[in-house]
Amino acid sequence: MTIPKKTWELKDSIVLLRILIGWHFLYEGIIKLYNPDWTSYGYLASAQGPFKPIFTALTSQTMIGWVDGLNMAALIIVGLTLTLGFFEKTGAFIGMGLLALYYLAHPSFPWLAEVNVEGSYWFVNKNLIELVACLVLFQFPTAQYFGLARLFGDKKKTLNTTTL
Amino acid sequence: MKWTRRDIIKGLGGLPIAGAIWWAGASSSVQSSKERTKLLEQLNIEPSLSKALPPIGGAPVRVGIIGFGIRGEQLCRSLGFATKAWLDNMQKAAEKNPNHSALADFKSQDKLNVSLVAVCDVFDVRAQEVINSFSSEEQPVKRFRTYQEMIRSGEVEAVIIATPDHWHAPMAIDALENNVHVYIEKPMTHTIEETYRLREAAQKSKARLMVGHQHRQTLSFQTAKDVVTKNTLGHISMVQTNTNRNDDNGAWNYAIDKDANEQTIDWEQFLGSAPKIPFNKNHFFRWRKWWAYGSGLSGDLLTHDYDRLNCVLNMGIPKSISASGGIYTHIDGRNVPDVLQANMEFPDFSIGNSQGKGKEKGMTFIYSATLGNSFSRPTILMGHDATMELGNRLTIWPDGGSSKYAKMLEAHTMKPSTPIYQYDPGANVPDAISSATSQYFADKGLMWTYIDGARVDSTFLHLREWLSGIRNGTELSCGIKEGFEEAITAHMTGLSWKLGRRIDWDRETETIKPIENIDFDAVLLGSVLY
Q1: How do residues B378-422 score in pLDDT, each as one tens digit?
Q2: Scanning every residue of chain A, which has its alpha carbon at the shortest distance from the alpha carbon of B442?
Q3: pTM
Q4: Is residue A3 included in any domain, yes or no?
Q5: What ipTM was reported for this prediction?
Q6: With 0-12 CB in 10 A as exposed, 13-18 as middle and 19+ as buried, what is B210?
Q7: Nearest CA to CA, how far is B231 from chain A (Å)?
Q8: Is A151 close to B3, i.e. CB distance below 8 A?
Q9: For chain B, which domains are there?
């Protein structure tokens, strides 16, 4: 008699989470890459909260081109690493950085007027939740299980998370 | 290394997903960009950038300022001369709030080749402020007691007239007759009779006359002209413009200087042609509230809205005007209305059309104003094919019943609720079919309100155009023709309100059609409602 195999484990759910987040980042990056008129100017210029001066400074003529380019590149890098499953920890880390910036530019603080958001938030918004989801991906790598790292990664670093 | 089938599937499983996302993102972006390019090509609107003027060379233009009140001070600042008091105040404001950029904007303004050499103001405090602030060792500012002395002194080549309305024409005519260049505030004149005399003086003079409608420099208006010329809107049957103010300053209740008295103000000279009344500080500082010196909404604010559209549509003087309104928000002794509606008829106005014959003529221009509410009503041009909202930015929506865009509306590549064109002088790229997000930011005034990181002052551009006209002989965008049309339109509106009847313009004879037993200028200057 064989022991029935668990068909859907935690690591499968985390792979799914990783691919969905990668999907989200990649699509955002690609849309911007192929639209020459896209700019983060509006998002930054309307920044609120304690870091407003920093974000506003990024909208200057000399900075905005770099800011747009870096943002686009970072989105695509995060998207590719998470969907394809390689350097996923780096990807998750950069993703957390981006989301932290997005959150801080328009933080959901109750004393700030909500600008251009769908839904209602009290400190916690979707950016913050996705940031924490990236933290999970960072702590729970799955590329050795599903992703390019399974083929090309260092086999010695076998997945120790299966023992969870 | 040996890979199992399972390894291959789980190792490369992400590739088709990433590929699909890449393809979906790219094709959606490219598709919408293609649609936009197609639409823009079809509309063929060319956002105009500021005109390149030749440099104002030679010796600095020697300018005298006549009237250093609120507007006179602003004009001097645009010319490059800010009072010490203003500089101190702005410095303090900037220290308090780093985003307060008035001082930085002033400092970054290009220097004009001009010397402020003379001042004429009947109030000693203001004349002295000019002398104290703008005099230097090499260039002292000289005070003249009367404008005649200043004009004939040989010391000024050009004058800026920023006095109450009843002094505009006498001063401008005198300057032009002495070949001194003139920059005159709006409304150009105070009576009908002097409007003709000023036109004659301007036509005969070697000097240049510029009327102070600085919005002619606003880039969106120059673009609007292009939009209208290319018939993007179709036949325009209605234009709506508005004034909405709800504060003391907006209702002309300006501050009264504590040092104002009969010793510091030359009251006789202030009155000029106005009825002789005893010294009255209220009248002196808040002259816009009385027909004897000013012209209320019709001369002060309608003129701006009328000229804004006249520079886009070039529609000229209306065939008739019917105005109504009253003194409803500030019952404080004023005799000019504070709520005013003027309907101007242009039955022959046409810019061509996209429909069948017989549907291409006629337009009503509505000006609606109140000094008791500040809800911002936009300026709207309503055409058969599209609607244009015109301000610092410019937005065009297609009309659901358009003939010109019928096919695109049917194919849903155009929607009446989505702008087909949005222009802002600060933007690098015209934004056709903008997203809800960028629309939102644009509406908030957050996008594109800066050109090269600096706010550009249209009065500065207008004065520069005038100075270039003086030195280089370049064209002026608001000369006597435009001033004449603006002044007559303002006077017709004032008459209509006062007489409670329609006022007609005779285009053949270029006169207001007479009404039996009515002396138009006496009505215009009087305080009585008929």
Answers
A1: 899 999 999 999 887 789 999 999 999 999 899 888 889 888 888
A2: A42
A3: 0.81
A4: no
A5: 0.90
A6: buried
A7: 26
A8: yes
A9: 61-216+460-478 (3.40.50.720), 219-263+288-454+488-512 (3.30.360.10)
